[in-house]
Amino acid sequence: MHTYQLIGPFAQILPMTNLNLKGAIPDEALLVIDNGGILIENDRIHSLGKFNEMLLAAKELGAKITTLDGSDVCLPGFVDAHTHICFGGTRAHDYAMRNAGKSYLEIAKSGGGIWDTVTQTRKATKDQLIALIIQRANRHLNNGITTIEVKSGYGLSVNEELKMLYAIKEANQELYVDLIPTCLAAHMVPIDYSGTATDYLEEISSQLFPKLKAEQLCNRIDAFIEESAYSKEDIAPYFTKAKAMGFDITVHADQFSTSGSAVAIAFDAVSADHLEASTTKEIEALAKSNVIATALPGATLGLGCAFTPAREFLDAGGALAIASDWNPGSAPMGDLLTQAAILGTFQKLSNAEVLAGITFRAALALNLKDRGKLDKGHLADFISFPTTDYKEILYQQGSLKPNNVWKKGNLVID
Ligand code: NIG
Ligand code: FE
After folding, report:
1. pLDDT tens-digit profile of 22-53?
2. How large is the ipTM?
3. Nearest CA to ligand 1 atom 8
4. Do 109 and 249 have their domain in common?
5. For residue 347, which of 99, 192, 290, 310 is within the disulfide window of CB 3.0 to 4.6 Å?
6. Quick check: 82 and 296 in contact, CB under 8 A?
7. Does the global pTM surpass 0.95?
C-alpha cells in the first residue's frame, strides 16, 4: 500500500544532495529549488521539484496535496550527533566555580564534574530518566532536530549503564525523534571502583558488551581519552574488543590535550568529537582519514575555551559535523542551531558548511545513510523556517525557529 503526499510550495528547498562529504563548501555550491515541492511516498522522499510542475503527476498518483503559501524555507531535519541528555540533577554549581576561576579538570579532580552527575543519575529511577530524556528530546524537536544521538556514561557500572541505555531505548519508543544510543561507560574511571582502569574496562567489555548486542541497546562505543579519564594504552584492548564485536567506535578526543584523535584514526572511528586542543598536526591527520570530526561549540561556550579549528579542518579536506554535546557539565545550553551559527561566526564557515554539519555530515558521523539529505529513498524528515531566504536562518543565530517539522512524512510540529 503506497501513500503519496505532495507538500509545497516552499519559497526555497535546500535538499543538500549535491555536496561532498569532505572539504570546504562555498554557498554557491548549494542547490536551491525555488517554489519547490516535496513528494513523499509513505515515510520516504519520492522526488523534489518545482511545486507547480509536480502537481499533475502527484494527482495521478492520488497524492494528498498540502498547499502552502510559498513563504518558507525547507531543509532536511537537523541531526544532533553528540549529546548526553540522559542525566539527573544539575551542575550549576560547577558553572559558577568555573566562572570564579576553577578549571573543568580541577573541579573533576576534587570530586565534582562528571562524578557529581554520576551520583545524581544513579539516584534517579529509570522512569525518571525516561521523563527527562523525553522533555529534552521534544525541546530539540521543536528546534528542528529530528535525530538525536544520546550517550550513557553517567552510570559507570554494568547495572547503572544498563539502566541508562534501557531508559534511552524506552524513551525512543515514546518520541517522534529517533534517538541513536551510544555506550559511554568509558567516560571516566569510577571513583567507587576498587580495581584499576584496565580491570573496569575489562569488566564492562566482558559483561556489558554482550548485553548491548543481545538486548539491541546500542551499536556504538565511545570513550573519553584525557588525562582525567582514559589513556590511549588503557583504551586499546577495549576498542579492539568493541570492533571485533561489530560496534562502531567514536571518541571524545583532543578536548584539553591531544592524543584522542590519533586513537580515533587508529581504530577507524566513525567520528572524533571535541578537538578544541587539536593542532595542525592532528587536524591534517584527521582530515586525511575517514574519521568525521564533530565540533561541539556548546562545550566551548559552556567552558569558555577555544573553538574547534573547523575552518582549518575543512580547508585541509576533512568532513566536519557540528553537534550540541548537550550535557549538564560542559554544555548545558542544548541549542544546536544557535551554537552552530556561532561556530560559523568565529570560524568563518559558509552557510553551506554549517548546514552540512548539522544535516548529512552529522548523519554520516552516526553512520546513518538514510537521512540528512532530501534525496530519493531518504527518510521524509524535513523542517521549514518562516523566511524566504535560507541565509536568514544562520544570520538570526538561532532566534529564528522552525515553524513546521515533518518526521517520516508526518507533520509533528505545526
Ligand atoms: O563531552 N568531555 C567529556 N564529557 C562531556 C562532559 C560531561 C560532563 O562534564 O558531564 C563532554 O564535554
Ligand atoms: Fe560529550
Report:
1. 999 999 999 999 999 999 999 999 999 999 99
2. 0.96
3. 329
4. yes
5. 310
6. yes
7. yes
